[in-house]
C-alpha cells in the first residue's frame, strides 16, 4: 500500500537512484560501523546502507512507517526505534569499544536546526554525520565570516565540527518535490575544540546576532565594554557577521563559568 507523505512530519522521500548512490558513496558504509539513520521513511537509503553494514539502527516518528520497516527487515538486521529524534537518547545505542556512531539522515526541514543542536550535545560519541538538509541551511552551516549566510548556526556548529557541503540535490529527486533545493553536508566532530563554556558562547553569539544591522559594540552593549571587544581582537565598529569564531570564543572566555 502506498504511503501518503505527511506534511506535519515534513516528509519528502528521496527517490532518485543516482542521487542515492552518490550519497552512499559519500558515506562509504563499512561492515563494522554502528550506523543510525534519522527518519528512514520508505527505506530508500536504508536498503543501500544495509548492503554495506552488518546491522543498523533507525529512528522513525511515523507509526505507519515503523510498521512498514519492521515488516520489511528482520529485527536482527534493522533495529527500529519509534519516536521523535529530538527526544531520542542517541547515547543509548550500544557501540563496540573503540568505535563511534555514524549518523545519517534526510532531516525534516521543519526541525533541522533544533535537531542539529541536539546532536551537537553527543558529538564526542560520533565519528561523522551525513545529512540532507535544505540547501539554505547547509549554506548557513558552512558560511565564512563576511558572508550574508554567516550567523549563529555557523558559529555554534563550526565550533564543534569540521563541515563540508558535498553536493546539491534538486527538488525533482524527491516525492513529493519540495519547493527548495537540498544539499548533502558532511559533519566531523573536532577532536580539539577551542576551549570555552558552551552556554557562554551561545549567550555571546545569540546577543551578537540579535541585531545584525548594528555594529557589534551596540549588539553586545551591557555584556561587554568597548575595551573588552578590543582586547578580544574585535573592532567595536565591526558587524557581527564579519567576526570570526575565534573572536567569539575570546568573548565567551570573559564571561564567568556557568
TrEMBL record:
<dbReference type="InterPro" id="IPR029063">
    <property type="entry name" value="SAM-dependent_MTases_sf"/>
</dbReference>
<keyword id="KW-0698">rRNA processing</keyword>
<dbReference type="Pfam" id="PF00398">
    <property type="entry name" value="RrnaAD"/>
</dbReference>
<dbReference type="InterPro" id="IPR011530">
    <property type="entry name" value="rRNA_adenine_dimethylase"/>
</dbReference>
<feature type="binding site">
    <location>
        <position position="12"/>
    </location>
    <ligand>
        <name>S-adenosyl-L-methionine</name>
    </ligand>
</feature>
<comment type="similarity">
    <text>Belongs to the class I-like SAM-binding methyltransferase superfamily. rRNA adenine N(6)-methyltransferase family. RsmA subfamily.</text>
</comment>
<comment type="function">
    <text>Specifically dimethylates two adjacent adenosines (A1518 and A1519) in the loop of a conserved hairpin near the 3'-end of 16S rRNA in the 30S particle. May play a critical role in biogenesis of 30S subunits.</text>
</comment>
<keyword id="KW-0949">S-adenosyl-L-methionine</keyword>
<keyword id="KW-0694">RNA-binding</keyword>
<feature type="binding site">
    <location>
        <position position="106"/>
    </location>
    <ligand>
        <name>S-adenosyl-L-methionine</name>
    </ligand>
</feature>
<feature type="binding site">
    <location>
        <position position="14"/>
    </location>
    <ligand>
        <name>S-adenosyl-L-methionine</name>
    </ligand>
</feature>
<feature type="binding site">
    <location>
        <position position="60"/>
    </location>
    <ligand>
        <name>S-adenosyl-L-methionine</name>
    </ligand>
</feature>
<dbReference type="InterPro" id="IPR023165">
    <property type="entry name" value="rRNA_Ade_diMease-like_C"/>
</dbReference>
<dbReference type="InterPro" id="IPR001737">
    <property type="entry name" value="KsgA/Erm"/>
</dbReference>
<keyword id="KW-0963">Cytoplasm</keyword>
<keyword id="KW-0489">Methyltransferase</keyword>
<dbReference type="InterPro" id="IPR020596">
    <property type="entry name" value="rRNA_Ade_Mease_Trfase_CS"/>
</dbReference>
<protein>
    <recommendedName>
        <fullName>Ribosomal RNA small subunit methyltransferase A</fullName>
        <ecNumber>2.1.1.182</ecNumber>
    </recommendedName>
</protein>
<keyword id="KW-0808">Transferase</keyword>
<feature type="binding site">
    <location>
        <position position="39"/>
    </location>
    <ligand>
        <name>S-adenosyl-L-methionine</name>
    </ligand>
</feature>
<feature type="domain" description="Ribosomal RNA adenine methylase transferase N-terminal">
    <location>
        <begin position="19"/>
        <end position="191"/>
    </location>
</feature>
<feature type="binding site">
    <location>
        <position position="84"/>
    </location>
    <ligand>
        <name>S-adenosyl-L-methionine</name>
    </ligand>
</feature>
<dbReference type="GO" id="GO:0052908">
    <property type="term" value="F:16S rRNA (adenine(1518)-N(6)/adenine(1519)-N(6))-dimethyltransferase activity"/>
</dbReference>
<dbReference type="InterPro" id="IPR020598">
    <property type="entry name" value="rRNA_Ade_methylase_Trfase_N"/>
</dbReference>
Amino acid at each position: 500500500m502506498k504511503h501518503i507523505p505527511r506534511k506535519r512530519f515534513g516528509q519528502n522521500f528521496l527517490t532518485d537512484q543516482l542521487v542515492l548512490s552518490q550519497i552512499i558513496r559519500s558515506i562509504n558504509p563499512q561492515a563494522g560501523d554502528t550506523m543510525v539513520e534519522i527518519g528512514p521513511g520508505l527505506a530508500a537509503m536504508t536498503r543501500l546502507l544495509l548492503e554495506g553494514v552488518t546491522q543498523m539502527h533507525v529512528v522513525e516518528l511515523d507509526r505507519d512507517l515503523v510498521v512498514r520497516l519492521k515488516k520489511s527487515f528482520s529485527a536482527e538486521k534493522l533495529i527500529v526505534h519509534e519516536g521523535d529524534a529530538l527526544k531520542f537518547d542517541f547515547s543509548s545505542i550500544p557501540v563496540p569499544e573503540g568505535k563511534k556512531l555514524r549518523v545519517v539522515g534526510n532531516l525534516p526541514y521543519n526541525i533541522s536546526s533544533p535537531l542539529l543542536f541536539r546532536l551537537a550535545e553527543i558529538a564526542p560519541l560520533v565519528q561523522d554525520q551525513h545529512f540532507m538538509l535544505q540547501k539554505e541551511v547547509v549554506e548557513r552551516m558552512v558560511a565564512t565570516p563576511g558572508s550574508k549566510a554567516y550567523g549563529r548556526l555557523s558559529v555554534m556548529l563550526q565550533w564543534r565540527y569540521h563541515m563540508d557541503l558535498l553536493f546539491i540535490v534538486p527538488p525533482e529527486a524527491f516525492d513529493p518535490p519540495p519547493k527548495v533545493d537540498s544539499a548533502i553536508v558532511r559533519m566531523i566532530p573536532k577532536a580539539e575544540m577551542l576551549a570555552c563554556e558552551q552556554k557562554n558562547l551561545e549567550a555571546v553569539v545569540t546577543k551578537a546576532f540579535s541585531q545584525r544591522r548594528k555594529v557589534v559594540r551596540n549588539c553586545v552593549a551591557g555584556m561587554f565594554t568597548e575595551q573588552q571587544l578590543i582586547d578580544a581582537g574585535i573592532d567595536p565598529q565591526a558587524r557581527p557577521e564579519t567576526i570570526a569564531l575565534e573572536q567569539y570564543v575570546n568573548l565567551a572566555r570573559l564571561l564567568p563559568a556557568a
